[in-house]
Design brief:
The structure holds two protein chains of two kinds.
Chain A: H1 2-9, H2 18-51, H3 55-59, H4 74-81, H5 83-116, H6 122-133, H7 137-150, H8 157-163, H9 165-181, H10 185-194, H11 198-209, H12 211-227, H13 230-235, H14 244-252, E1 253-254, E2 257-258, H15 260-286
Antiparallel strand pairs in A: 1-2
Chain B: E1 4-13, E2 17-27, E3 32-36, H1 43-51, E4 58-63, E5 66-67, E6 78-81, H2 93-103, H3 108-122, H4 137-150, E7 155-159, H5 167-184, E8 187-192, H6 195-201, E9 204-209, E10 212-217, H7 219-224, H8 229-234, E11 241-250, E12 253-258, E13 263-265, H9 271-274, E14 281-286, E15 291-293, E16 302-307, E17 311-314, E18 319-325, E19 328-334, E20 346-351, E21 356-358
Parallel strand pairs in B: 3-8, 3-9, 6-7, 7-8
Antiparallel strand pairs in B: 1-2, 1-4, 4-5, 9-10, 11-12, 11-14, 12-13, 14-21, 15-20, 16-20, 17-18, 18-19
The chains are: A mainly alpha, B alpha+beta.
């Protein structure tokens, strides 16, 4: 209104438009997000569509592959009726739960020590922890094979429980060091004066305050452990010890025969637990618990 | 409750940088002592050494007669209030205040009694169930004080507790802290860089600079009888004016001759004190409130002081006038009714009974 008045009085001229700039930014943002969503959602949608098709329909090259003509749940029933799939699922669950637990205990303790207890070489150690994360598992599995073999844990889920933390601990420790470092120093000093020991300070102050960081690290460890492929491929050979990732591939691909419908159904079901975990923990992860600790 | 003693206390960091250079201080039981000084003067480091949060390089800290150098903070029976409150964000106000007592395994009803009592003193009873993020800055600071009070420690330590509050709240909380101390009478060591806070709160003020204590004394003594140029300039707002000059004597007594030719007679009762410094360069120190507009008075030792105002700041209850002598900025406090104008020469009245003469070589007040 003031613009109209001003221009009608001839004193001011209008330069630029905030609303036009904002509209342009909104369009660009929406277009980019839609493009990204299409790219990321296309594979799971295609998996879902294929999982609802019979083998005959999948093999039929006529028509649009994105449409299901006669939907069926036969792939799901065949998969769930097969005891091996449940075995893979249980193996994955056991390995993942144990690996997440081991990872979080080690990385929270290590990060607390590295972030808060000043001792000789703590800085170098913190950097060293991160450097170990940079060594790829495709390089590590050869020496690890010797070690796991030496321990008599080849072809056993316990071998996986032992080696997965080499993938998860360094990164989770690194995340937790960053998170603990962001907690104001005065909070531990207040706790020290209040009478807390180091362990009480960790359990009663740091762990609750750093819960978003711990959840982020847990999600990471869960995803890595659930989706690990190279190590189980190298270390596990019999189906009863296989986790989902290699179980699906090894059992549903027979020489050059691919049970595509079941592979897709199995992959979708295998992806469910991480999706559920993300859905439940994301809000908690995003919530900034540290608000109000200090001035701000 | 207890007295606190610092004996030859030293704190040195890597590279032999000394933050505290061997200070001695005796703080009596029930006393409220304020450590004040500019940034980096060593006041916070001293407080943190008393708390046990900083290792002691040399000397001793004793609380209640016991040397506590090697005793961890939790066993020193102290409580500390931090500048940024340091409340536990995941705990309610009640839990925050009760935390120290819970760790010390106090019975539940005793914890409740103490927290309720502290909450009443600090007027935060309705906030006990809230989380820190739902509190304003002033409320958070009260909770931080509550956490200290419930412990009923031997010593309270405050590390610039009001620095994060706005000006109005700061004045309010200052009164609150004084009230709390009058109620609980716990020995208190309070660190601030704000000399007004120091003056208003302290039984005794400790002025620190460059890791040493410049002067210790009650606020009025520091104001009226500063020992060094630093203390003279640090205490008081606006700061004391310093003007180079020369003491000259004749048969009639001593006179202070300023570079600009202004001559100020030295009060006869001070002649003996300053006589050894006659014919030597000195610094005149005079506070703006002792450089005022001329009005009829029966006070002795009032001298004329010519000035040409460059900046005039009307404050309501007074008017600050700034001018220069020999390139040195000088401030004077005038009655708001006194007519002054920029560039128009006036004659001010200097109260020579309140002035100080400083030796420029040693920076000591003579």
């Amino acid at each position: 209104m003031s613009v109209t008045t001003a221009s009608s009085a001839g004193i001011y001229s209008k330069a630029g438009s905030l609303s036009r700039e904002r509209r342009w930014a909104m369009w660009t943002a929406y277009a980019s997000l839609i493009l990204a969503a299409i790219i990321f959602l296309a594979p799971p949608v295609y998996m879902f569509i294929t999982s609802l098709k019979s083998s005959g329909e999948i093999a039929n090259m006529q028509g649009n592959p994105w449409l299901v003509r006669s939907p069926t749940l036969e792939n799901y029933s065949a998969l769930l009726g097969n005891g091996m799939f449940l075995r893979f699922f249980v193996n994955s669950a056991i390995v993942t739960v144990l690996v997440v637990a081991i990872t979080m205990v080690i990385s929270v303790l290590a990060a607390f020590a590295l972030a808060r207890m000043r001792f000789f070489g703590s800085q170098a150690l913190a950097t060293g922890v991160f450097l170990t994360y940079l060594v790829p598992d495709t390089l590590l599995f050869i020496p690890l094979y010797q070690i796991v073999g030496g321990l008599g844990l080849l072809n056993s889920i316990w071998g996986l429980v032992l080696v997965y933390p080499t993938l998860t601990v360094p990164f989770c420790t690194w995340i937790m060091i960053g998170y603990f470092a962001s907690i104001p120093k005065e909070l531990d000093e207040a706790a020290l004066i209040d009478g807390a020991s180091w362990s009480q300070m960790l359990l009663k102050i740091f762990v609750p305050v750093a819960m978003p960081g711990i959840i982020a690290a847990t999600i990471f460890a869960f995803t890595v452990s659930w989706a690990a492929f190279v190590y189980p491929t190298a270390f596990v050979t019999t189906p009863d010890q296989m986790p989902l990732t290699i179980g699906i591939v090894s059992q549903l691909v027979r020489a050059d025969t691919f049970a595509w419908g079941q592979i897709m159904a199995g992959a979708l079901l295998a992806a469910l637990p991480p999706v559920v975990i993300y859905a439940f923990l994301m809000d908690y992860y995003i919530a900034g618990l540290t608000a109000g600790a200090t001035k701000g | 409750m207890a007295q606190v003693s610092l004996r030859k206390l030293v704190k040195a960091y890597e590279g032999n940088v000394q933050a505290v250079k061997g200070i001695d201080l005796e703080i009596a039981d029930h006393e409220f002592v304020v450590l004040v000084g500019p940034s980096g003067c060593g006041k916070s480091t001293t407080l943190r050494m008393i708390a046990g949060l900083e290792e002691i390089t040399g000397g001793d800290v004793a609380i209640g007669g016991t040397v506590v150098n090697d005793i961890p903070p939790r066993d020193r029976d102290i409580a500390m209030v931090f500048q940024n409150y340091a409340l536990y964000p995941h705990m309610s106000v009640f839990e925050n205040m009760a935390f120290g007592l819970t760790l010390r395994k106090f019975p539940k009803d005793e914890i409740k009694r103490r927290v309720d009592n502290a909450a009443r003193i600090l007027d935060i009873v309705p906030l006990l169930e809230r989380k820190p993020k739902a509190l304003s800055g002033g409320q958070r600071q009260r909770v931080a004080m509550g956490r200290a009070i419930v412990r009923d420690p031997k010593v309270f330590l405050f590390d610039e507790p009001l620095s994060n509050l706005d000006a109005k709240l700061r004045v309010q909380m200052r009164t609150e802290i004084k009230k709390v101390h009058q109620t609980v009478r716990t020995t208190t060591v309070y660190v601030t860089h704000d000399q007004v806070e120091a003056m208003t709160l302290a039984d005794r003020v400790v002025v620190m600079n460059h890791g040493v204590i410049e002067q210790v004394g009650p606020p009025q003594e520091l104001y009226h009888h500063p020992a060094t140029r630093f203390v003279a300039g640090f205490i008081g707002s606006p700061a004391m004016n310093f003007i180079p000059g020369r003491l000259e004597g004749d048969a009639h007594g001593l006179r202070l001759v300023l570079g600009s030719g202004v001559i100020l007679p030295v009060p006869p009762e001070r002649t003996a004190r300053y006589a050894p410094h006659a014919a030597r360069p000195v610094l005149l120190g005079i506070r703006p409130e002792h450089l005022t507009d001329k009005k009829p008075t029966d006070k002795r030792n009032i001298a004329d002081f010519p000035a040409t105002p460059e900046v005039i700041e009307p404050m309501g209850m007074e008017t600050l006038v700034h001018f220069r002598i020999d390139g040195h900025e000088i401030s004077a406090r005038l009655d708001p009714a006194c007519p002054v104008a920029v560039g128009e020469p006036i004659t001010l009245a200097a109260d020579m009974d309140q002035m100080h003469i400083i030796d420029p070589e040693t920076d000591k007040v003579l």
